[in-house]
Design brief:
single chain, 360 residues, alpha/beta, TIM Barrel, 2 domains, 7-stranded mixed beta barrel, 7-stranded parallel beta sheet, 28% helix, binds iron/sulfur cluster
Length: 360
């Protein structure tokens, strides 16, 4: 697993952003330039003074944009050079409490929008940057302000924001019609067409109806939407009905992602009661995808190892798991489709992974 947070020492008094530079090209003002490397780690010098990072080489860190927390003694690799899986966790607070949440919410919020903005301005050319939480739109004005300023200065960047769609209002329509939002897509979860079932899965009364209101706002704004449905035992049999709802009411979305469960957070403790063995019965998933396709809705599968998906739908299975938390079973070694395959989450039950694969 790639470590995103590393032990670090710095004499600075407050958190700051730096881009690590081993000497590639010229050193810019925001860069911390390499001055030493040994078996323990790497030392840099920049406008915030000396920065020592342990546990990685200069080659691994070259070009990464980090947030350094001098008091906490760590450096977070916020934007890793060459990775297509950089995501900013802008808050750990959330108004929902989903049954299978992979990142259980916390009550406190640390406002780091200013640091994230500085980091984004240093991003590699043509990057797609993810925004996640918690629920990012709990801080909607801060979030939108950051997106707008960054996109104004960096027309090469794009953002993908994961949001539960509980906070968009009519007042947002004009703002979201700004041309900069053509470079923002919104990943929004819906778990069932039945309001009571959706509300139960997300742990919030009225969530479905509030989601419908937000979807209407986003539709009027011409927003780009990736609809997301995590598969759990509770909604597996309701997937076809959800497909009918999506085809009828949400035809303006760009794509519908059906996602297999991640064995972490709340889902880990509830794994036995939540996980759906799709390889044993792909029927409801296949039916939902086919119904959506018939009505012009493009569906895709996230976190489904390709060999576990029947051939007619296999090409919809994307290599969706972020590089830093993706692994493959030993049995995957001879597989020719490994590069196109999601593999497994680092924390997926090992035996389940080994037993479940059939190299292609
Ligand atoms: S054998 Fe492994 S790499 Fe190949 S499709 Fe299956 S899970 Fe993916």
């Amino acid at each position: 697993m790639i470590r995103l947070t590393l032990p670090a020492a710095s004499d600075a008094e407050a958190p700051y952003v730096a881009r690590l530079n081993t000497g590639r090209g010229g050193v810019e003002e925001a860069d911390a330039a390499l001055v030493d490397e040994d078996a323990e780690g790497v030392t840099y010098l920049g406008r915030h003074g000396v920065l020592a990072i342990d546990g990685a080489s200069a080659t691994e860190l070259d070009g990464d944009v980090v947030i350094v927390d001098p008091v906490g003694g760590r450096a977070e690799r916020i934007l890793r050079r060459g990775s297509g899986h950089n995501t900013l966790l802008v808050t750990e607070r959330c108004d929902q409490l989903c049954l299978m949440c992979s990142q259980p919410p916390k009550k406190t919020h640390v406002d780091r929008f200013a640091l994230f903005e500085q980091a984004c301005l240093l991003a590699e050319s043509d990057s797609l940057i993810g925004i996640s939480g918690g629920e990012p739109t709990l801080y909607k004005d801060d979030l939108l302000g950051m997106l707008e300023r960054v996109l104004a200065e960096r027309p090469d960047l794009e953002f993908h924001v994961l949001t539960n769609g509980q906070f968009f209002d009519d007042d947002d329509v004009a703002r979201l019609r700004d041309e900069r939002y053509a470079r923002v897509s919104w990943g929004i979860p819906i778990y069932a067409a039945d309001a009571a079932l959706h509300d139960r899965i997300v742990g919030k009364d009225g969530a479905f109806s509030r989601l419908e209101k937000s979807m209407a706002v986003l539709a009027r704004a011409g927003a780009r939407i990736e609809l997301r449905t995590v598969l759990v035992a509770d909604n597996a049999d309701a997937l076809t009905r959800l497909a009918r709802y999506v085809a009828k009411r949400l035809r303006f979305i760009e794509v519908w992602s059906i996602m297999q469960l991640e064995n972490i957070g709340f889902a880990r403790a509830r794994w036995a009661s939540l996980f759906v063995e799709h390889a044993r019965d792909f029927g409801p998933i296949g039916d939902a995808i086919d119904h959506a396709a018939l009505h012009g809705i493009r569906a895709q599968l996230f976190n489904f190892p390709r060999c576990t998906v029947p051939e007619p739908w296999r090409d919809l299975a994307r290599a969706s798991i972020s590089d830093w938390k993706r692994r493959y079973a030993d049995a995957c070694a001879p597989c020719r489709e490994r590069d196109a395959c999601s593999g497994f989450f680092e924390w997926h039950p090992i035996q389940q992974a080994e037993d479940g694969v059939t190299p292609l």
